[in-house]
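Quick one - inputs below.
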Amino acid sequence: MAGKPKLHYTKGRGKMESIRWLLAAAGVEFEEEFIETKEDLEKLRNDGVLLFQQVPMVEIDGMRMVQTRAILSYIAAKYNLYGKDLKERAWIDMYVEGTTDLMGMIMYFPFQPADTKEKNLALIIERATTRYFPVYEKALKDHGQDYLVGNKLSWADIHLLEAILMAEECKPDILSAFPLLQAFKGRISNIPTIKKFLQPGSQRKPPTDEKFVAVVRKIFNI
Amino acid sequence: MSGKPKLHYFNGRGRMEPIRWLLAEAGVEFEESFLEKKDDLLKLQKDGSLLFQQVPMVEIDGMKMVQTRAIANYIAAKYNLYGKDLKERALIDMYVEGMFDLNEQLMSYGYQPADKKEQHFANMMDKATNRYFPVFEKALKDHGQDFLVGNQFSRADVQLLEIILMAEECKPDILAKFPLLQSFKAIISNIPTIKKFLQPGSQRKQPVREEEVPKVIAIFY
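Output:
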């Protein structure tokens, strides 16, 4: 019994990846138990350890937490990445919901029918460059500080870096019109815990390829 | 300038309804500005009032808040509906996220195309009775208290009542197998601010009627 958080999910990004990022950024070591087959998921369900029969599930501090946002909020608050007061928290929540929406689009992209892929990719790029990134670029421009909220590293910064890197996997020059986000990316990537997470051999997961899509479809029956 | 929160949305439930419930429960008077056509949405977007070009948007405490969960979290914390510590908050969040998932299905039902309606209905009833309600029934059974978390009223209780009532609109006897949820419903409905919100003439919105659907869709698409 290590006392380390234990993550239950597939061996891919999906909804668990943001949780891996946040734990890693906070310098928290964690274990992972991978769901590789439908039977693995059924076993978790039959054991009664999934509150709503779904993963992600994270064993942490004596709880079996489910629901991505609940887990992320708990980790953020526990490791002082959630701002200093209610208003900072409100801003962090707003920013994080935006990056969640953007990353959600990117996450579902490999699962979409082949004939919609081109259209969906175009929509992702459009949303990233006209709806989401301008907001974060402006936030950094308006206050001139290194971090999005309260002049201090928070969950919002970590989540934004994750979103930027995912978007760049879709279009490598996607930040070309966003100089402050480029600098932000450089800065946040250099934070020691994050730098470590970005290196090969870390628990960061690769983008989902076609082969993994098939595995996931089988496990979740989708 | 009234200082009251001001809600920007269309005149229906959608994603704003849980926010109306929380404000009403907390006894907070609020104003509403309704989007009736696309131009109304475009105007808000052009004014720069919508952080991500989307509603819900709530003007509150000098902020123009967007994103349903961010708004709901802020209101819950401000009015002490979010538990007493991190662990209670975690449990409330888990419950509430489940409720948001079910709410998404319940509130989008009215907007489904005719050929998808039956399947959607069956799926949401199945989820309500087999995935979500059993969890809350068990929670109440295990601790034997009136409220879901920490023996104290919280947002989880408000949001649970909301989805129970929405589910009952679809299937009136949906709580047949959940005796503790039935008594929970009665207890929470009788809280004075909630009782008031449940009366005709309050700002609670009705389920979307079929003939209204095209008008709502036209605002956003």
